[in-house]
Amino acid sequence: MSRRRVVRLALAAAIGLLVAAPVLAAQPPEAVNLNVDGIGNVSAPLQIVVLLTLITFIPAALVIMTSFTRIAIVFHFLRQAMGSQEMPSNQMLVGLTLFLTAFIMAPVAGRINDAAVQPALAGRIDIPQALELGTPPLREFMLKQTRERDLALFVELARLPRPERADDLPMRAVIPAFAISELKTGFQMGFFLFVPFLLIDLVVSTTLLSMGMLQLPPAMISLPFKILLFVMIDGWNLLVASLVRSFL
């Protein structure tokens, strides 16, 4: 095909588009609905913003409303007591803490799934009913680990009437009471972890002082003995078993 013929065909196509453009513009286009309906009187974009904001609270709920807090505190105290600096690393400890949390919370999650999640997915109940049915298993778990003194504190601060049953307690009082109870329990377990390692530090420091080795750091000598002691008694097995059984 010659160059002139190609140019003629291109000019003809351009003229055809120019002629047909006003005719196509005069015809009413089909309506395309780009609006996304929201729920109730709240628009869909605002609902998306609210949903994304609520998603940011999921890590906080994981830390506060599960066994994560106690396990993380105990692992932190263990590393500090051994003086092993960054070993195990934060990634290792957090990963182990997450898997232990999933293991401990699996029965609670199963009860919530059977009572609320599956009926909601099947359409038998709506979202508010699912939240109401899914709360009792989690409340029961938290109340089992919460001290009465901490629970009474938040009931008093919230000016709530004394409930007749534990199921009558609102979650706004149960969650903070459970959180401070977990903090205290974690610190208590961490203290008992410190005692044997502290004895090793005292023995090593006294020995070095009696030998006149004042310039030698005691931590350099005590660290291998701490690791040896922890390995000989199978410390990870004992520690993890104690942590899991503390929630049973």
Helix content: over 70%
State the order of secondary-structure elements, H for helix, E for strand: HHHHHHHHHH
Q: What is the CA-based Rg, rounded?
A: 32 Å
Taking the sheet with the most strands, its summary is: none
Query: What oligomeric assembly is this protein in?
Result: single chain
- Arithmetic mean pLDDT: 76
Structural category is mainly alpha
Topology, number of strands: 0
Query: Uncertain regions: pLDDT < 50 for 5+ in a row?
Result: 13-27, 29-41
* Shape verdict: elongated
Beta-strand content bin: under 5%
Distance between the termini: 86 Å
Number of DSSP helical runs: 10
List the helices and strands and how they pair.
Layout: H1 3-26, H2 44-55, H3 58-64, H4 68-82, H5 90-122, H6 127-145, H7 148-157, H8 171-210, H9 218-232, H10 235-245
Helix pairs in contact: 4-5, 4-8, 5-6, 6-8, 7-8, 8-9
General description of the model:
The structure is a single chain. The chain is an all-alpha fold. It is built from ten helices and no strands. The radius of gyration is 32 Å and the shape is elongated.
Q: What are the salient characteristics of this protein?
A:
single chain, 248 residues, mainly alpha, elongated
